[in-house]
Amino acid sequence: MYRGHLFFDWDDTVALNIHLFREADQRNGHYLGGLFGRPVEEILLAASEFDLKVSRRVGLGRDSYPSAWVACYEHFCDRAGRRPRQDERERVRAIANWPYEQRQPLVDGAAETLDLLRQEGHELIVWTAGDGEVQQRKVEESGLADRFHEVRVVPKKDSAGLRRLMGARDRARCVVVGNSAASDVRPALELGLLALHIPADTWAFDEAQINVDHPLYVRLESIRMVPATLKARLSLAG
Ligand SMILES: [Mg+2]
User: Fold this and answer.
1) What's the 167 CA to ligand 1 centre distance in angstroms?
2) How much distance in Å is there from the Cα of 147 to the middle of ligand 1?
3) Minimal CA–CA distance to 51: which of 85, 16, 21, 19?
4) 188-193, long-range: CB < 8 A, 24+ apart
5) How far apart are CA 172 and CA 222, in angstroms?
6) Within the chain, which residue ranges are assigned CATH 1.10.150?
7) How far is the CA of 146 from the centre of ligand 1 (A)?
8) Is residue 204 scored above 70 in pLDDT?
9) If you average pLDDT over residues 76-91, what whole number do you get?
10) Distance 113 CA to ligand 1 centre (A)
11) pTM for the whole structure
12) Where in the chain is CATH 3.40.50.1000?
């Protein structure tokens, strides 16, 4: 029997991710800013709106971020009263594809912490949103795949999906660990699970109002604090 069942978010909880997209944003922002003679901030603001719209409509697919940037490019073409060009569209798409081709650096302390949690008898499950192939590849490339008992990739993380993933596991031993208020903390609290929130720089899709006074909400500064926190919190559950 496992001591606890830990549902770990992947991006920006175990491996660093958002900085790759910020870098691609900057590159496309400067490219389109130059093409259309607009301030980079204006391009970035429009792009983030397209990104949110696409992600909320179709979930976090492999193509949602590049598609949003192409839509943003076409929007500025439209505003400038000119037709989109295939070479420009392809360049925008190539820049937006770049983050998916990079190897993610690990969060400091992630490998040691996962090792320790496994030694202590926890079941470790990756619960991550995005494209199945992309997310699986990231886990494999991280060198941490063997630390996990299961990897579950979904288009969107919510409490209904989490409940299905939990199955017959004892709720009092289930814990969600993640950086996102919307995708990690909120589903956990909705199901009455312990939520270990390790805030990290994130994007608007991940933001949500959460009750930080909730008795099952714990905010941690680092993944390294997870084992000690679980010792203190899960002993109550037996
Ligand atoms: Mg995350």
Assistant:
1) 22
2) 18
3) 21
4) 188/7, 188/162, 188/216, 189/214, 189/216, 189/217, 190/159, 191/159, 191/162, 191/163, 191/166, 192/216, 193/162
5) 23
6) 18-101
7) 20
8) no
9) 98
10) 17
11) 0.88
12) 5-16+105-237
Alpha-carbon gap, residue 97 to 189, rounded angstroms: 34
Q: Selecting from 1.10.287, 1.10.150, 1.10.10, 3.40.1000, what CATH number does the domain 18-101 have?
A: 1.10.150
Q: What are the φ and ψ backbone dihedral angles of 11, each rounded to 5 degrees? A: -65, 125
Q: Is the pLDDT of residue 203 over 80?
A: no
154 alpha-carbon distance from chain centroid: 11
Burial class (CB in 10 A: 0-12, 13-18, 19+), 215: exposed
Name the burial class of residue 197, with classes exposed (0-12), middle (13-18) and buried (19+) by CB atoms within 10 angstroms of its CB. buried
Phi, psi of 186 (to 5 degrees): -60, -50
- CATH no., domain 5-16+105-237: 3.40.50.1000
